[in-house]
């Protein structure tokens, strides 16, 4: 049985509200950090009550998980399409420029001294998938003779760390402070991973 116009409007409002919450949380978590951001801040920015947020997410940790998964799954799909090591780097840099709050947030979540909740292992599966994608590109480059020898998984983690660090000095994202041109970063990566 088809949905009534009223039910269609309600579903649209719910979907729109959920996206608004995710956008707001992504921005606040990215700018202030997970720990420094309260559900009250997210609710106020959305012009909702905190109780309204609980209709969508059980708690702040679930909200963080939803924020990371929404963009993370898209980023993984784009990474799969990258042809080589520098293409992979370009894909990730472009993605974080397109979604700068997500870039800042993922740098916070995946860095040493993570801002994520204690014992927070929600992203391990996506992180492993990303590392496997990096490693596959590195392995293909090693076979082609364009990427240095070494354990692909170890090199994948090194490359991932370099890309995450670059987000902090990317002129398109960094704002104030030291920056490094994308062309210079690409050259550093190319030299570091050259066969």
Topology of this protein?
Elements: H1 5-32, H2 39-46, H3 50-53, H4 60-80, H5 85-98, H6 100-110, H7 124-144, H8 152-167, H9 182-193
Helix pairs in contact: 1-2, 1-4, 1-6, 4-5, 4-7, 5-6, 7-8
Quick take:
With 195 residues, the chain is an all-alpha fold.
The stretches of 5 or more residues where confidence is low (pLDDT under 50) are: none
> How many individual β-strands?
0
Radius of gyration: 19 Å
End-to-end span in angstroms? 62 Å
* CATH topology term: Tetracycline Repressor, domain 2
Characterise this structure.
The mean pLDDT is 88. The chain has helices spanning 5-32, 39-46, 50-53, 60-80, 85-98, 100-110, 124-144, 152-167, 182-193. The chain is elongated, with a radius of gyration of 19 Å. The longest helix has 28 residues, at 5-32. It has one domain (5-193): Orthogonal Bundle (Tetracycline Repressor, domain 2), CATH 1.10.357.10. It has 195 residues and is mainly α. α1 packs across α6, α4 (60-80) packs across α5 and α5 (85-98) packs across α6. It has nine helices and no strands. The termini are far apart.
Which properties best describe this structure?
195 residues, Tetracycline Repressor, domain 2, 0% strand, elongated
């Amino acid at each position: 049985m088809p949905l009534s116009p009223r039910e269609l409007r309600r579903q649209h409002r719910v979907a729109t509200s959920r996206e608004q919450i995710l956008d707001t949380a992504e921005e606040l978590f990215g700018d202030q950090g997970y720990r420094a951001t309260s559900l009250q801040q997210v609710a106020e920015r959305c012009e909702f009550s905190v109780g309204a947020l609980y209709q969508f997410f059980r708690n702040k940790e679930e909200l963080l998980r939803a924020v990371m998964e929404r963009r993370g799954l898209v980023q993984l799909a784009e990474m799969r399409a990258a042809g080589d090591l520098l293409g992979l780097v370009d894909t990730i840099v472009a993605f974080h420029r397109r979604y700068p709050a997500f870039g800042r947030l993922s740098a916070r979540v995946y860095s040493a001294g993570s801002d994520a909740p204690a014992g927070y292992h929600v992203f391990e599966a996506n992180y492993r998938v990303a590392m496997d994608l990096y490693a596959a590109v590195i392995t293909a480059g090693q076979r082609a003779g364009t990427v240095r020898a070494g354990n692909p998984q170890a090199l994948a983690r090194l490359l991932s760390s370099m890309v995450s660090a670059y987000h902090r000095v990317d002129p398109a994202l960094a704002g104030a402070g030291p920056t490094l041109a994308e062309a210079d970063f690409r050259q550093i990566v190319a030299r570091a991973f050259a066969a």
